[in-house]
TrEMBL record:
This is TRAP transporter substrate-binding protein. Residues 1-24 form the signal peptide. The lineage of its organism: Bacteria, Pseudomonadati, Pseudomonadota, Alphaproteobacteria, Hyphomicrobiales. The keyword Signal applies. Keywords: Signal. It comes from Fulvimarina uroteuthidis. It holds the Pfam family DctP.
Length: 354
């Protein structure tokens, strides 16, 4: 009797195991990022891929493509939307040609000071809801952001303040940035992320707005140029993970939860990692003889004023206007933008006092 009982129990366990195997759901995601695998962001992306696979016990597998290996960086979004890859791990600002609203999910410029402020807008300031409407219009699902902090500009010439931007030829991402820097006298040249090193080396450009200091070191820029702005102030792009909506919708709920949770983890790890890596990179570069320029509050305000004056000029679609309004409301709450209503109300009293 005991042997028969054990045999029945073993059979039941085996059938349960087989049933579990039969009903296990699998998701395979092909994800392209513009980052090289040896950069800090590339390494963080690989950690994210590994974590998703581990958390799903192998039910989710990821085939990564680094350094825009499948299509050029700016085409990654379309490649995901049309099924060439499944997910775009670049940034929304590359898609401003589709709708200027992408600028305000990709890189607001002259807005938030820290990654934590910008992430708090996304998750607690209504940002994700507004942004999701935009992404869904293009059959994409925004999973989340990873923000490494303020970018540093690399240059073959000094960049001690706004005056040094006059006639400065530099690589710029597409979108609003070109308008802001043109106002300050610079000559922005839009080119793919993967072309920057060669353009610097050949002298086609004087400098580049590419990434944070540590990533720029990883890209080898300071083997060519000897000047950089640090700490950065002009640009804090929100690199995104956005997936084909049909692919995302077909995923079981627990796979979606794993992807979203791992993305939130990546966001925190990215911000914390670059706090340390940028500081270490700055120390190493100074020792190497690279000059780092920390702009004064007054000089930073010159850029901030030019950037904020450009927001309404660039917000030429209903979606862009909605995102700018959302950002301004949250920036005002944080004290980073003056309350326009309060300023207008105070103006008559001030004038009458005079």
């Amino acid at each position: 009797m005991r042997i028969r009982h054990l045999t029945a129990a073993a059979a039941l366990a085996a059938s349960t195991c087989l049933a579990g195997t039969a009903f296990a759901q699998s998701t395979n995601l092909r994800i392209q990022t513009h980052y090289a695998p040896e950069t800090p962001s590339g390494q963080l992306a690989q950690e994210f891929f590994d974590k998703v696979e581990a958390m799903s016990n192998g039910e989710i597998t990821i085939e990564p493509f680094f350094s825009s290996a499948v299509v050029p960086t700016v085409e990654t979004f379309d490649a995901a939307a049309t099924g060439i890859v499944d997910c775009d791990m670049t940034g929304g600002a590359y898609q401003t040609g589709k709708n200027p609203a992408f600028q305000f999910v990709g890189d607001i410029m002259g807005g938030y000071d820290t990654p934590y402020q910008q992430l708090s807008w996304l998750y607690y300031g209504g940002g994700l809801e507004e942004a999701q409407k935009l992404y869904n219009e293009f059959d994409m699902q925004l999973i989340g952001w990873w923000i490494y902090g303020q970018e540093s500009m690399s240059s073959s010439k000094p960049l001690a303040g706004p005056e040094d931007l006059k006639n400065w030829k530099f690589r710029s991402p597409p979108g609003m940035e070109t308008k802001i820097f043109e106002k300050l006298g610079a000559s922005p040249i839009v080119m793919d992320f993967t072309e920057i090193f060669t353009a610097l080396e050949s002298g086609i450009i004087d400098g580049a707005d590419a990434s944070g200091l540590a990533n720029n070191v990883g890209l080898g820029f300071y083997d060519i140029v000897e000047h950089a702005t640090y700490p950065g102030f002009h640009s804090m792009p929100s690199d995104h993970l956005a997936c084909n909506k049909s692919v995302y919708d077909a995923m079981p709920d627990h796979h979606k939860a794993i992807l979203n949770t791992a993305m939130e983890s990546l966001a925190l790890r990215t911000a914390l990692t670059f706090e340390q890596k940028n500081a270490q990179a700055a120390s190493d570069l100074r020792a190497k003889g690279v000059t780092l320029y920390d702009w004064s509050p007054e000089d930073r305000q010159v850029f901030r004023d030019a950037a904020q004056a450009t927001w309404p000029e660039f917000a030429t679609s209903p979606e862009a206007e909605a995102l700018v309004e959302s950002h301004l409301a949250y920036l005002t709450q944080l004290g980073l933008v003056k309350d326009a209503a309060a300023s207008d109300a105070a103006a008559p009293a001030s004038e009458s006092a005079n």
